[in-house]
Amino acid sequence: MTDPQIVLTERVQQALARAFGSEHADADPLIRPSQFADFQANVAMSLAKRLRRAPREVAEAIKAELSDFPGTVEVSGPGFLNITLDDSWIQSEARQMLTDPRLGVGTITPAQTVVIDYSAPNAAKEMHVGHLRTTIVGDSLARLHEHLGNTVIRQNHLGDWGTPFGMLIEHLLDIGEEAAVAQLEAGLGTEFYQAARTKFDGDDDFKLRARVRVTTLQSGDPDTMRLWHVFMDATIRYFNKVYELLGVTLTDADLAGESMYNTMLEKTCDDLEASGAAVLSEGALCLFPPGFTGSDDKPLPLIIRKSDGGYGYASTDMAAIRYRVHDLKADRILYVVGSEQALHFRMVFAAARMAGWLPDTVTAEHVQIGMMLGKDGRRFKTRSGESIKLMDLLQEAIDRAAAAISDRGYDAEMQKEIAHAVGIGAVKYADLSVSHDSEYVLDFDRMLGFTGNTAPYLQYAQARIRSIFRKGGVDPAAATGPIVLGAPAERALALQLLGFGSALAQTTADSEPHRLCAFIYATATAFTDFFEQCPVLKEGVDPDTRASRLALCALTLRVLETGLDLLGVPVPERM
């Protein structure tokens, strides 16, 4: 099975080579869906200037080389190529897609090792809504890369080291290990931090103890390290509760916090200084990657060792990038991190290339995550101005979903299962369906709506398909067609389904989950039109038409479920 746009791209490029020479064979045919045909190729418009010929004349020459095309090609306007595929070709490709376990989706060749840095909550505080987008987007990209055959290495870069841990460990000792563990496992990390901070700011004896404790922590003192592990283990157990509720694929094996790189930092700095890439500037060891200047037009430093001998984020990130390239053998590294860190990562990548640690064969990309806003257009916070706990947000979504389906007659267990899928799915899809680098407003009423581009609408579409099979007493796996296209809505649905492979490939290549969301929504919309215009089980539908339409339903069901699963959106069997 081949995606129509891939077929058209190849055919038009071949026609370009035959018509104008092989040097034009790699030109982008600029093929897009069209309201006047199935697709429109606009390459004649862009190629005309290079050839010094009229666009329409160029389009006619391309058309002449497409005589064996499985459809019709018409030149319109100043030089557009309107392309309509034969029904027989669409039918044949849809049948192959139905019988393919992978729905016609190929794998990346050669496969790559992709390291994805995502989620990364701060262990000194509670997971809040700010961690939602990095976690969801990163997890969807991990799922997509694995589905396309890449080896994915997840890296949960926890904030689990540094000066705050001195006061946190001392506060743990003050209240007792048992009480501290209970608080941290209950998700009261922010309250724990605030209590420690209050004592640090107001109690000189506590401040002194905290500072001494930082020193013993950094020196690897066994008792201090044991206490650090008590704190971290309890915190991670709570994080895992959030991950489980959210349905993300991160595990303890993916933990790669700041502490992991602690022993590498001295060597990182020494090696950079010895190579000449890093130099001393006002007592600090700095890298000056080319092209970065401050407001005073002076070169902007990336400080990897402070003048007091301490290390910062840049130190850790330089150590991490070398580890990921050298030890993990990454071909591609994705940093799913807030957009406010854009300058930092541009400098880190440039510095790593300058040092020779990031070769041209490896790509490093900052998948920028925009801010979540409240209805007032400001950062999403509580009325008191504090960040909202992620667990509280997720639970509210589930509770609202439960209220929305409370009158549908399900037993308590089924209602709980559906409410979880709808609530969590709504939160995740609302995030994924917008460009990851844009800000978006968290609006429960909109995201839990059963109309429009929302998770409940898509979940309901697949649940409706399942109800068709239940009503007809047919297993979806047994609906094998053959697919025969008659009504326009059947044809439109089949053509839409054939684009699944391209949608996955583009989404993965560009790290843009919203593109897959748009495809799934368009698929559900095409199915709704089909459902309304093409009866499946209605009396009077002949057996062959019924079999064909059931096969289209089965194919749509698999595409919707596979697409939503790759996004990490749960799919309930009933709604």
From TrEMBL:
Its main location: cytoplasm. Residues 458-575 form the DALR anticodon binding domain. CDD domains: Anticodon_Ia_Arg, ArgRS_core. It comes from the Bacteria. It catalyses: tRNA(Arg) + L-arginine + ATP = L-arginyl-tRNA(Arg) + AMP + diphosphate. Gene3D superfamilies: Arginyl tRNA synthetase N-terminal domain, HUPs, Isoleucyl-tRNA Synthetase, Domain 1. Pfam families: Arg_tRNA_synt_N (PF03485), DALR_1 (PF05746), tRNA-synt_1d (PF00750). Monomer. This is Arginine--tRNA ligase. It comes from Nonomuraea rosea. The lineage of its organism: Bacteria, Bacillati, Actinomycetota, Actinomycetes, Streptosporangiales.
